[in-house]
Amino acid sequence: MKRRKFVSGLGVTAAVGLTACSQSDSKKEHKTATKFDGKVIDWTMVTTWPKNFAGLGEGAEYLAELINQMSGGRMNVKVYGAGELVPALQVFESVAIGAAQMGHGAAYYWRGKLNMAPFFAAVPFGLNAQEMNGWLFHGGGLELWRELYEPVGLIPEPAGNTGVQMAGWFNKEIKTLEDVKGLKMRIPGLGGEVWKRAGGIPVLMPGGEVFTSLETGAIDAAEWVGPYNDLAFGLFKAAKYYYYPGWHEPGTTLEALINKDAYEKLPEDLQQVVTNACRTANADMLSQFTARNNEALQTLIEKHGVELKELPQDVLQELARISDEMLAEQAETELDKRILNSFKKFRKEARQWHKVSEQSYYEGR
Ligand code: CA
Questions:
Q1: Centroid of ligand 1 to alpha carbon of 122 (angstroms)
Q2: pLDDT tens, 20-40?
Q3: pTM exceeding 0.85
Q4: Span from the CA of 11 to the centroid of ligand 1 (angstroms)
C-alpha cells in the first residue's frame, strides 16, 4: 500500500520512467558517440550527509572525483551536502524525478517508501561488509535491489561500507535484558524497532542533538557509527561506556542513486565510468573505515580513557530472536518475499562458511 501510494505520488517519476523507455531505442546511437565533442556533461550529486562528513561525506566527494577523473574531464559531478540543495531525506525523490542526476546516502533511509530498502543498507543481525558485497555482487542481491528501485526510475549501486559499527555510548550498564527495559536510546530504523520490542525506548533525533541529549541525561544511550566518527563527534565526553558490537548495523552499505534516464543518455564508456567509480568507492570506503577505526579506537582508550564493554551474549541472542521475527514481517509483496528469501539463504550459508573461516581464524589469532 505504502509503495503504491509513493509511486503514484510521484507522477513526475512515471513520466521520467516512460521517457527512459522511449529513449532506449536511440541508445545504439549513443554507444558509438564516444568521441569527445568538448561538451562537458554536468551532473549534480545530492547527499544525505553534511558536506565532507567523516567517512561518509568524504566517500561521496571521492566518488564524484573518481567520475570526473576517470571520464577525462568529459563529466563534471558536483557534490552538495545535506540541506544545500535538498534536505537529507529528500535525496531519493530528488534523483528519482531527475532534479539531480545522482545521490549518495543509505537505503535504510527510504524504508517509509519501500519496506525492503533497509535490506540493501543494513538490518539488525544482517550481513557484515564482506557478506554484503558477496550477496550484492555475486549472490543476486544487486539484481533484486535494481528491481526494487526500477519502478521509480532509479539505478542503485553499492558505494561504500562502514564495516561493523559500535553498539553505542551508554550512561547505564547493560548486564541483563532487564537493563534494556525503559532505557532511552537514540537508535533509528529497524534497530530502534527491535530496541522497542525488547522493552527499550528508541528516540529519534537528528545528529546535531545527540551530544547534548546524552550529556544532559535526556537520553541514556546513543548509537552513532564507530570509533572514527564517534571520536570526531566527541561522544566520549558525554557517556561512560562504549558498547560493542553494532548488532543493529553489522556492515552498512552506502548507496549511490543514479537517475535512470540520465544514465541511459550517457555513452556506453561513460556508463562504465560511473558504475566502476561506484565500485572503486565502495571498496575504498571500507578500507578507510578499517584504517581510521583502528587508530581512533586506540585514541579513545589510551588518550580519553574510554571504558569498552561487550553486550552480554544472552542480551544479543534475545535481540537477534526479536530481529528475525521483525525482518520476516517486512515482506509484503512478491518481490519483498524474494528479497527476504534471497537474503536469508545467503546469510545462512555465509554464517556456516564464516564460522569455519573468519570466526575460527579471529579466535585463534
Ligand atoms: Ca549507526
A1: 10
A2: 333 444 444 444 445 677 899
A3: yes
A4: 33
